[in-house]
């Protein structure tokens, strides 16, 4: 069993969970590379946020749609605020 990691600093805000929706609004912190089971939408309302893709490429962003399963990391400058939403109740649809 691996040791538990401490949560990344900087995250503070309001989270809302309902069937088919998970949303966070507030101060954005940083997160080590990870992936989600559902699509995630990021909207930066204030400050600077940089996303890192699975290849290590970095890009400052104001908004992003992160596909389900896409490995990514996040670095936020102090004072960054935004909104993240996800749909944990839906499974990605497959193309016919």
UniProtKB/TrEMBL annotation:
Region of interest called Disordered, as start-end residue ranges on this chain: 74-96
Superkingdom, taxonomy of origin: Bacteria
Official protein name in the record: Cupin domain-containing protein
Gene source species: Planomonospora parontospora subsp. parontospora
């Amino acid at each position: 069993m691996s040791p538990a990691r401490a949560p990344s600093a900087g995250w503070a805000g309001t989270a809302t969970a309902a069937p088919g929706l998970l949303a966070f609004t507030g101060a954005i912190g940083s997160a080590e590379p990870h992936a989600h089971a559902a699509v995630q939408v990021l909207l930066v309302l204030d400050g600077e946020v940089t996303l890192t893709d699975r290849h290590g490429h970095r890009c400052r962003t104001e908004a992003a749609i992160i596909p389900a399963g896409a490995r990514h990391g996040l670095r936020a400058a102090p004072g960054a605020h935004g909104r993240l939403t996800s749909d944990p109740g839906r499974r990605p649809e497959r193309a016919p």
